[in-house]
Design brief:
Layout lengths: L5 H30 L10 H7 L12 H21 L3 H19 L3 H31 L3
Helix pairs in contact: 1-5, 2-3, 3-4, 4-5
Length: 144
C-alpha cells in the first residue's frame, strides 16, 4: 500500500464530502432565510453572497489522482474569491489556509507527492475544514 492509500483517500474524500454537504445545507438554509419574510440585522456581506452561490460537488469517488487534481482546480478560484472577500482577519487567515491546501491538490505533480502532502497535513486540513464550516454557519446566522 503506497503513501496515497485507499484508507487515507477514503477518509479525505469522506471529510471533504461531509464538509461540502454541511456547507451546502448551511447555505441552502441561508438562502431560505433570506427569502423568508424576516427582518435581517444587516445587509448580506460580499463573503456571504459568494457563499450562497456555492454549488459543490463531492470529491472524486476513488483515489484517482487525475480526478482529485481536477476537482481541486475546479474549486480553487471559488475559495480564492472567498479569501479576498473575508469579512475579518481571522476568516481571511482561515480562507488563505484553505486555499493553500486546495492549491496543493491542484498543483501536485504526482499521486505520490499528493499522498505525502495529505498525510503530512491531515490534522491541519481537518482543522481548517471544520473552521470553514463554522465560518459558513456564522455567515448563515448573520442573515437572521
Amino acid at each position: 500500500m503506497g503513501v496515497f492509500s485507499t484508507s487515507l483517500a477514503t477518509r479525505t474524500r469522506r471529510l471533504a464530502a461531509a464538509t461540502m454537504a454541511a456547507a451546502t445545507f448551511s447555505v441552502a438554509l441561508g438562502v431560505e432565510v433570506v427569502s423568508a419574510p424576516t427582518t435581517q440585522s444587516a445587509a448580506m456581506s460580499p463573503y456571504c453572497k459568494t457563499l450562497t452561490t456555492f454549488h459543490p460537488k463531492s470529491p472524486p469517488a476513488s483515489n484517482n489522482y487525475t480526478a482529485y487534481r481536477a476537482w481541486s482546480k475546479q474549486y480553487l478560484p471559488f475559495f480564492q474569491k472567498l479569501a479576498s472577500q473575508a469579512p475579518n482577519a481571522a476568516t481571511r487567515t482561515l480562507m488563505n489556509d484553505l486555499v493553500h491546501y486546495i492549491k496543493a491538490g491542484a498543483t501536485a505533480t504526482s499521486a505520490k507527492a499528493l499522498g505525502a502532502y495529505l498525510v503530512a497535513h491531515r490534522a491541519q486540513w481537518t482543522k481548517v475544514w471544520r473552521a470553514f464550516i463554522s465560518a459558513t454557519m456564522a455567515c448563515v446566522t448573520s442573515l437572521y
